[in-house]
Amino acid sequence: MSFCSMVGAQVLFHGRVYGETFPGSGKDFPFKAVYCFAGIDGPNCEPLQFATWEIDPVAWYSMTGPAGRYTMVFTRPGKFMRPIVLTNIFTKPGDDLHRIVRPKFDYANFYDGDWDKKPASEYYQTFVATGASVTHVGIRPVHDGVDGDGPGSQNIVVSIHKRGSGTPDNWPQIGPSRIIRDVDCGGAKDYVYYAGWNSGEVPLTPGEIYAVHLKGEKPFQMFQQPNDDKRTDCYRIGADKTGWQGADIWMAVGTDNDGLLIPYNKCSNKEYMEFAGGSTKWSQTYVAQGTSLAAVLLSAAVGTAHPPLSRTRLRVRVREGGPNGPVVGVEKIAVGCGNYTGDASWGWFCAVYSPGEVPLKPGKTYAIEWETMETPQSLHDYVNCKGVKSDLKPGFNPYKKVAGDEYSLGTSYKDGTVKQDFDLDMQVIEYKNTPKDWDKAVVQKNLIRNGDMSLGEVASKPGDSGQPAFWKSWSLGTATSTAYIVDDMDAPNRLLRVTGNPKDNSTVDGGFVQKVEGLDHLETYRLSARARCTWQMSNNHSLYVGYDPTGQDTDPAATSIVWVPVVGTHDVWIDFVSEPIRPEKDSISVWLRGKSISPEQFAFEADFDDVQLCCVKSGVPDKP
Ligand SMILES: [Ca+2]
Ligand SMILES: [Ca+2]
Ligand SMILES: [Ca+2]
Question: Within a 13 Å sphere around the CA of 226, how many CA atoms are in the beta-carbon half?
């Protein structure tokens, strides 16, 4: 289903990408230059894109586009932030969603107010695993200038070790090492460096203790946060001191702890090194680990006479078995995000997927095929900053993976068919679990109180209306009666009933209302109920379930109430499920309504039971 044809008011996504500076600090750490993509379901929507700001307002993002069901991806291949994926973001025209997004690390300490005063040749930083394998490590060496201009450029080897006996230098290594090249922290240079792994390369057991080992060619220093918390600590090896540091160093460790898998990761922080070659189409094969795609990213540039990446779209197809295999799932559109100088543009293309749009079989080979969808028509008005007019030639030039970051289980294909002996610089993010009908998934916690109508003083004799707990009755018609009763056809089940027989221009029109508080404007909620009526639904007799996103529960005539007719067969329970509802602030009121304007041989009865309001699941699926 595609909502892209909608016009009119658009949706605004904005906010920040923040981490916590160190556990318990309560201070936000800004994630700069993170690529944000938001895409609607289906084949025909070009994703929105943005890169978080590096200057004030730092870590800020802002995207607008048409309403629909969005999947959002925050990632920066080649940098240390573990990607964030949000799903089931149901939006309507005019929605304004200000959201702080936070990555979920196994270890994160970004404190730069102190540092190890003496250089060490090796550091071991311990962490407690919550995920199944390591994919991201970020480090930030420092040099205080006391001993000159710093150690100069060097390579640092990063490896992961599982706790064993003795000090961490005796712990066994898990998975392959990575080399971070050209680490230089002299003078004012205190950059962040990164090493990555594909999911599964460095397997972890959640709950166990591991250490990230850094070994330089020359002694170096690290930012650190001194603390007494021995749950994590740093062990250093150096001329001045070998032993536990009583501090945690500036480091981030991202793992498969979020329902995502990254079977094809960018494992080096070196970017934009060597071109693969200009073409209108490129493919790369890889082996899936998850059950459906979440996002695919490709590092590429476009020519000087071509519009920038942010205005360039690629069609993305996933082919089973290899570059000539059948297309699996939905073909999507990728958009670029990155750098633009006015006549040169490079960065990353990304297509985003909701769970199940491209189903995958773990262990099977797939080809990701990228093909430009630009045409002479879409290019013809472009003029670059040097006055060069578009050459009307669509195409793009991907970057190769850099040396030391080869992908062994696949390769690339120029023009989608000509096999190459190198891999494209990409990142593939998958969902580990793909439950059926994820678009309907809700958190199984009923936010309505007494939704099954089991609580209250039930009507005990004719003429008594009873009093259900937490529900208020309301009426707009003079012939309305409301009652809380035992269903005499299904005792001892209790339900709410609206009844009456309108005569002499009177009407039955009323029901029950409940206000639900403590909700979140950033979430949506589904309302469900069952309802039953003694007469066929018509202009004379009708059942409604209503909701008011303002949360008001005093005015049944308010235009803010959305009344949805319950449609079905009379004298049979009808199941009702609403669309996702977004509260204007922090509450929604739920309205049950029976209406009858025509006298009949016997009374109109509208029954309601089992009302639920449940939060729509908007994260990554956590179960199959
Ligand atoms: Ca500690
Ligand atoms: Ca390869
Ligand atoms: Ca009941």
Answer: 5
Q: From ligand 3's centre to the CA of 544, what distance in Å?
A: 18
Helices and strands in the chain, H and E counts = 1, 44
Separation in Å, CA 621 to CA 109, 159, 431: 27, 30, 7
Smallest-distance ligand from the CA of 424: 2
Ligand with smallest separation from the Cα of 486: 3
Evaluate if residue 5 carries a pLDDT over 80: no
Rounded Cα gap, residues 483 and 473, in angstroms: 9
- How high is the pLDDT of residue 1? 37
Closest ligand relative to 24 C-alpha: 1
For the whole prediction, is pTM greater than 0.90?
yes
**Ligand that lies nearest to the alpha carbon of residue 610, given by its number in the listed order:** 3
Place of tokens 């490590």: 137
Q: Strand pairing of 345-352 and 260-264? A: unpaired
> Could you tell me the distance, in angstroms and rounded to a whole number, from the CA of residue 107 to the centre of ligand 1?
11
Q: Look up tokens 């069901």; give the residue.
A: 69
294-352: per-residue pLDDT in tens?
999 999 999 999 999 999 999 999 999 999 999 999 999 999 999 999 989 999 999 99
Which of the 8 DSSP states describes residue 334?
E
Question: What are the phi and psi torsion angles at 378 (to 5°)?
Answer: -75, -15
State mean pLDDT over 161-167. 98
Ligand 3 is an ion; its neighbours by CB within 5 Å are 452-453, 493-494, 609
